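__Record contents__

***
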Amino acid sequence: MVRVLYVTGWCRSGTTLIGNLLGEVPGVVHAGELRYLWTNGVLGRGTNTLCGCGREIPECPLWSAVIARLAGGDPDKAVRHAERAVRLQQAALRTRHTERRLADARSARTPHPAVADLAGLYAAIASEADAGLIVDTGKFPAEAAALCGAPGVDARVLHVVRDPRATAESWRRAKAYIPPMGPVRSTGYWNAFNLASERIGRAFPGRYLRLRYEDFAARPRAELARVMAHAVLDAEPPVSAGGTADLGVNHTVTGNPDRLRRGPVEIREDDAWLRTQPPAARALATAVAAPLLRRYGYPFAPRPAPAALQEA
């Protein structure tokens, strides 16, 4: 049985950092946004082809071994496998497919071929990396839903939420290989991904945990310990009481460009968006997210903390 912690929610919510921190726990592999292994690593059509270790994905010892295991060491077969995997993802594992994948998981019927392929990929990673837990920060709710009923997979789901105004401000600017996105589109995705993620919690409450980014940033050690307990990890959180950590090499397929950071990192809330976000952009994001703001504990009119508190 392969153990997986699948992280869902919307992008720019701190999931890459959370995944990399978990990857510092012995026996844990943070794979990044694993969905893009085939697009980036084999077909070369993605936004970035670097593994988190700094090598091109096909040259990374882990991913080259995983791809060879699944494709029998045949480059042509690897391309055909990748093409098929991408077609199946588009056909069955987009956010719009979340309810169908939940229905499959609840009924324990034969999974869609895309789900069987995903389970096989996790098994290959576990074997090649000798991993006790794989963290996938893919953030596609349909994948998380499917894993709750995938054969050979013991899945837990972590739903990470961040204030939609903060994510909209982060998306306002391009970041390395990721292009910008406007506040209406970003917040529309925020609504869709979070609502779909909630459905998993209602269907499989024992497998689901919700975490607000703001709570993690305020209490990183305690909140990471809560995540680790959910993932059945019996170890000390790799974060000090003061919120500092030391990041080593990871093997993330893709994700936020910050995944390439190494060395000491201080975990604290990034509230610069409260001062830099244009009023019109904030108003648009607030209007689009209004039905969900109170549910997640976010005020309609957020304000920066007083200067004295920021300096404390």
User: Anything to note?
Assistant: Residues 225 and 236 are 7 Å apart (CA to CA). Confidence is low (pLDDT under 50) at residues 308-312. Residues 2-160+211-267 form one domain. The beta strands are 2-9, 28-32, 133-139, 153-161, 208-212, 244-247, 263-266.
